[in-house]
């Protein structure tokens, strides 16, 4: 499960990085041509870059620290979706209403949906990995097999 979380996290992180780069590119190009709302798209593209890097960091942590990896990837997925939703609300709907082409914004939204799905699935795969027991070490409940180390010692008959 941890390797699958690593692979899906890398795919999701790279897809969100590509989506952030596309948003930044379209925002800058729109600002050059004087399109209304282009500054918002480029600003959200800048905001999405650290979130994409956080997703990649979470993917790298998946084999070693699955709980921290799951938190990083879930924050990245949710933050990316919020940024894309803000692009949709602030730019996409007015462009559709005015009859202008919106192919680039649809592509950004599609890339982020794929990224969020990959990061979300990787998060779900990494969380169960945080409870796995390896090589007889103590798990988080303090047990190895059937022996419970937190139980009080039992009295024997020789102590009487």
Q: Give, in spatial order, the strands making up the sheet with the most strands.
A: 1-2
Count of DSSP strands: 2
Poorly predicted regions? 135-149
- Given the structure, what is the number of helices? 4
Order of helices and strands: HHHHEE
Helical fraction: over 70%
- Proportion of β residues? under 5%
Rg on CA atoms, Å: 23 Å
Distance between the termini: 51 Å
In round numbers, the mean pLDDT is: 77
- Overall SS class: mainly alpha
- Which term fits the overall shape? elongated
The main β sheet shows up as: 2 strands, antiparallel
Descriptive report:
With 160 residues, the chain is mainly alpha-helical. It has 4 helices and 2 strands, in the order ααααββ. It has a two-stranded antiparallel sheet. The longest helix has 33 residues, at 66-98. It is elongated, with a radius of gyration of 23 Å.
């Amino acid at each position: 499960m941890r390797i699958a979380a690593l692979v899906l996290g890398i795919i999701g992180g790279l897809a969100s990085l590509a989506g952030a780069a596309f948003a930044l590119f379209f925002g800058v190009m729109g600002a050059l041509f004087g399109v209304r709302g282009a500054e918002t798209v480029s600003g959200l593209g800048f905001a999405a870059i650290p979130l994409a890097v956080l997703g990649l960091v979470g993917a790298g942590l998946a084999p070693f620290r699955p709980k921290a990896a799951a938190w990083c990837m879930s924050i990245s997925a949710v933050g990316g979706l919020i940024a894309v939703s803000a692009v949709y609300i602030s730019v996409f709907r007015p462009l559709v209403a005015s009859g202008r082409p919106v192919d680039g914004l649809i592509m950004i939204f599609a890339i982020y949906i794929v990224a969020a799905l990959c990061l979300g699935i990787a998060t779900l795969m990494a969380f169960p990995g945080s409870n796995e027991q390896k090589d007889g070490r103590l798990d988080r409940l303090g047990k190895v097999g059937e022996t419970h180390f937190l139980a009080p010692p039992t009295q024997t008959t020789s102590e009487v």
